[in-house]
Amino acid sequence: QDAAAIGKQAMLSVVGFEKEKLAALCKDAAKQEGGKAVCQIANELFPKGYSCAGTEKAIGHLKVLAESDGALQAKILKINDGFHTSLMEPAKAQLGKALDEVLPRMQSPKHTIYMN
């Protein structure tokens, strides 16, 4: 919740750019917003497919930049948080503290765990 208090945030799905090109567009979008804007690649989904996250205005700028530069897709996601970005630092600190507190009481699993 502390991360949400930083301000409005958004995520954008972008398809059609190499990672370096999209990173440059993110940087330009953050500059357009100015101040403490955040705009960065959050996830690599598949070749030339990414989700980007950051402050709402910077992500809006990124959408316009990506579309004007020939993106196959630039779609705002129905997620209102800048997951996987520096905007989550407050949550990271709180989670780390909570994990440190329970670590002494943690034990190895007693059953086989399968993951897919």
Layout of SSEs?
Layout: E1 9-15, H1 19-33, E2 39-46, E3 49-55, H2 56-68, E4 73-76, H3 89-102
Helix pairs in contact: 1-2
Which keywords apply here?
single chain; 116 residues; alpha+beta; four-stranded antiparallel beta sheet; 3 helices; 4 strands
- The sequence of SSEs as H and E is EHEEHEH
Q: Roughly what fraction of the amino acids lie in strands?
A: 15-25%
How far is it from the N-terminal to the C-terminal residue, by CA?
A: 30 Å
The secondary-structure class comes to alpha+beta
The total strand number stands at 4
Number of helix segments? 3
Helix content: 25-40%
Please list the strands of the largest sheet in the order they lie side by side. 2-3-1-4
Average the pLDDT over all residues and give the rounded result. 87
Rg from Cα: 17 Å
What does the overall shape look like?
globular
Biggest sheet details: 4 strands, antiparallel
Uncertain residue ranges: none
What does this structure look like?
It is built from 3 helices and 4 strands. It is of the alpha+beta class. The chain has a 4-stranded antiparallel beta sheet, covered by helices on one side. Helix 1 (19-33) packs across helix 2. The longest helix is centred in the first third of the chain and has 15 residues, at 19-33. The radius of gyration is 17 Å and the shape is globular.
In short:
Helices cover 36% and strands 22% of the residues.
